[in-house]
Design brief:
With 77 residues, the chain is mainly beta. It is built from no helices and seven strands.
Length: 77
């Protein structure tokens, strides 16, 4: 049993910090990190990066994205 941020108790296999991947669809093979779990709507808020981290001047850069997905769209790694 996990508790979401609203204090509601529910059962889910996902928790913030988990690494997930898309097994099919337009994001097939993309991995991300779970940031929030919405048990009530069966959704995850995930972060993932695109491409390689590279240096611009003295700063490391990467393209980061956030996405909301359904529990049924991703799998745990």
């Amino acid at each position: 049993m996990r508790v979401d941020y609203s204090g509601r108790v529910g059962s889910t296999e996902y928790a913030p910090g988990d690494v997930i991947h898309f097994p099919e669809g337009p994001f097939v093979g993309v991995c991300g990190v779970v940031r929030e779990v919405d048990i009530r709507n069966a959704e995850l808020r995930i972060d993932f990066s695109e491409g390689l981290t590279h240096r611009e001047g003295n700063v490391l850069r990467e393209r980061r994205h956030q996405l909301t997905v359904g529990f049924d769209e991703v799998e745990l790694l």
